[in-house]
Amino acid sequence: MNEHWSISGQQINLRHGGYSxxxxxxxxxxxxLTSHGRNLVVPFDADxxxxxxxxxxxxxxxxxVVDGRYSFxxxxxxxxxxxxxxxxxxxxxxxxxxWNVDSQSESTATxxxxxxxxxxxxxxxxxxxxxxxxxxGLHTTLTASNLGEQPAPYGCAPHPYLTAGAGTIDDWQLxxxxxxxxxxxxxxxxxxxxxxxxxxxxxxxRRSRKIGDVEIDHAFTDLLRTDDGVAQVRLExxxxxxxxxSWDASCPWVQIHTADRPEKQNHRIGLAVEPMTCxxxxxxxxLDLIVLPAGESHSAQWSIRSL
Length: 307
Fold this sequence. Notes:
single chain, about 300 residues, mainly beta, Beta-galactosidase, Chain A, domain 5, 9-stranded antiparallel β-sheet, 1 helix, globular
């Protein structure tokens, strides 16, 4: 086991064939993933404070809980506000936890942590992250188990920023086989309603096309899937290189963000692709919210590979 610890936590190095991955234990974050030396995700340094949730594991909810307030089983709860500018509770409770490294081989690893009962989320949920690097890329399975005596609201997602290779995000081709997009308010990104991408052609990537200068920070659903329930996003550079992210039927939503940022070093440097078990603010809308019974578990799986 690799015992090196830095600002981003313990560094878990995985290798298989031409693939290499590094997972940082703080936030169970995918710090880097390469194929024959080419970045598939935007990396960050081991001794760097992880920027912008890059590569983090999001649970027990992905995206936002509006105002940090929600009601569950007849009780009102208030979560800590960590998206201060917009006034929301963002990306769950484990993104800054230092996950345990339970096991590691050359190409596999298992990490774990727990969400302990606390103000705003008085539920006890154990999380186990299994990683496998093989000839088809990096495969991740997140399993949540309710250790408490009452049902728990739950959702999850990963938060990688994909890269295609040569050129910039404006030059890359995106294939996003989603029929509907979740509309949001322009200031606080509060979900309003779902509409067809046909009503918003700038978000219609059902046929691969250049991203161009379009700005996206939206959740998409009604995804085209294979017979076994797998959906995928493809990002391709002009030289034919690219990256594919796929996920199973446990994630009916995907958040896409073109990383439009005020900081030059972070502005549009990759495409955030976040397969989600539920949409933003599901703790309030209840839409696709997982209610995890006491003693029960839920698993979600996603993969990233070179095109």
